[in-house]
Design the sequence.
């Protein structure tokens, strides 16, 4: 039975973007409402609000793969168990939920749940990406650095299990996908992201303090302060890296256009030089102007290339620093998980 204390803190890190995951409180922290009524009732002021909608199972219920009585149900949920709502909107009387005690996602009858709606929805996960070769389908390289199985759920795909300390490369259809990552007895991490072709995403999930260690694990004030500082640094670096990626892409396109024009003008000058010499002063002046224009274009291309190279150097330096801070964040998480 899932019965965590509201004071236990779980922290999940995605590529160094640390998100605090609080273990779910006991029932009664929010005003209940039957999901079948589609009525929205928020948590009362002053109660514990974990940032997700929670459903309490009323009676023995099967968790199905799809919103129907699919022959192969996932698990059987017992009265009093918690489920986290993936969506507040029922589908033909079924609710899409995550079983809190396992992390599995499926469908349960809406009439079998009493729901506590959050008043403070958690922020969406911000994920980092990098360009891949060509226009191939987007690829997710997902690493589970936690000590428990991770269940990744993306729209249009079946549930994907990543075992502890395992990495999986997953090819997905291009487009906009909602997703969540769930670990047993921790609040899932939700997100909504566009996944265009030709991109690769490297996600590293780290659970720094799970409820199974809650009695013995501790995070010192110094560690908390360092984690927060690293988080702030990582957030800033990710924004800077993304901005530089856009600037570099724009710069390369502009240089390509400049170089194409320079090639055209150079060919014209070479053809003029190879032909008969100008017979008049005005012809000489025109050729000289043509040469000067070509030379100025060459200088402009060189200056643009130098500026682009400086941006690339800055990008590489910031990316190196970002990876170092992400690694330190993961190391802190690992040291906490390693406590007896």
Sequence:
């Amino acid at each position: 039975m899932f019965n965590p204390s509201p004071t236990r803190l779980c922290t999940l890190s995605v590529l160094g973007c640390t998100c605090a995951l609080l273990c779910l409180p006991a029932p009664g922290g929010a005003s209940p409402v039957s999901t079948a009524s589609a009525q929205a009732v928020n948590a009362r002021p002053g109660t514990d609000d974990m940032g997700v909608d929670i459903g309490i199972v009323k009676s023995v219920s099967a968790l199905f793969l799809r919103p129907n009585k699919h022959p192969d149900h996932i698990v059987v949920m017992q009265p009093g168990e918690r489920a986290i709502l993936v969506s507040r909107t029922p589908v033909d009387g079924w609710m899409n939920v995550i079983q809190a005690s396992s992390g599995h996602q499926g469908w349960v009858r809406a009439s079998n749940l009493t729901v506590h709606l959050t008043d403070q929805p958690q922020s969406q996960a911000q994920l980092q990406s990098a360009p891949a070769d060509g226009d191939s389908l987007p690829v997710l390289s997902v690493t589970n650095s936690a000590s428990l199985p991770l269940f990744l759920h993306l729209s249009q795909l079946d549930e994907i299990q990543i075992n502890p300390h395992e990495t999986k490369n997953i090819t997905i259809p291009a487009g906009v996908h909602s997703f969540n990552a769930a670990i047993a007895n921790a609040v899932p991490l939700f997100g909504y992201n566009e996944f265009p072709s030709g991109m690769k995403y490297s996600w590293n999930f780290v659970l720094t303090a799970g409820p199974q260690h809650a009695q013995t694990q501790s995070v010192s004030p110094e560690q908390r302060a360092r984690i927060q500082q690293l988080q702030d640094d990582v957030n800033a670096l990710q924004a800077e890296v993304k901005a530089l990626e856009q600037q570099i892409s724009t710069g390369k396109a502009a240089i390509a256009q400049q170089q194409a024009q320079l090639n055209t003008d150079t060919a014209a000058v070479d053809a003029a030089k190879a032909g008969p010499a100008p017979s008049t002063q005005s012809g000489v002046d025109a050729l000289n102007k043509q040469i000067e224009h070509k030379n100025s274009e060459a200088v402009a291309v060189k200056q643009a290339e130098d500026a682009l190279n400086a941006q690339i150097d800055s990008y590489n330096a910031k990316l190196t620093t970002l990876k170092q801070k992400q690694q330190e964040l993961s190391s802190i998480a690992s040291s906490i998980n390693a406590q007896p």
